[in-house]
Amino acid sequence: MEAPKGVEINAEAGNMEATCRSELRLESKDGEIKLDAAKIKLPRLPRGSYTPTGTRQKVFEVCVCANGRLFLSQAGTGSTCQINTSVCL
């Protein structure tokens, strides 16, 4: 779709779904991409290799590699994101 002023897709009732075989890209040249929802789920986000001492909790932080890839790391008292994780390679 192309338009000189904008395109709006609206589903008043029900879901909206986009599916593709390889990459789905959302790109904004001059603005922002806003995910506005009560919950945002990334079910297949990989986990890093950090293993804290003490009790294991089910709280994670979202980490960002220099290449833009996201991964989860089990939360600790400070940041647990490790640059050397295999996800960032």
Automatic annotation (TrEMBL):
Lipid bilayer topology: Single-pass type II membrane protein
One Pfam family in the UniProt entry: Sarcoglycan_1
Predominant place of localization: membrane
Signal peptide location: none
Record bears the keyword Disulfide bond: yes
GO cellular component, one term: cytoskeleton
Gene Ontology biological-process entries: cardiac muscle tissue development; heart contraction
Top-level taxon of the source organism: Eukaryota
Entry-linked InterPro entries: Sarcoglycan, Sarcoglycan_gamma/delta/zeta
Entry keyword set: Cell membrane, Cytoplasm, Cytoskeleton, Disulfide bond, Glycoprotein, Membrane, Signal-anchor, Transmembrane, Transmembrane helix
Compartments, record wording: Cell membrane, Sarcolemma; Cytoplasm, Cytoskeleton
Family the entry assigns: Belongs to the sarcoglycan beta/delta/gamma/zeta family.
Official protein name in the record: Delta-sarcoglycan
Lineage of the organism: Eukaryota, Metazoa, Chordata, Craniata, Vertebrata
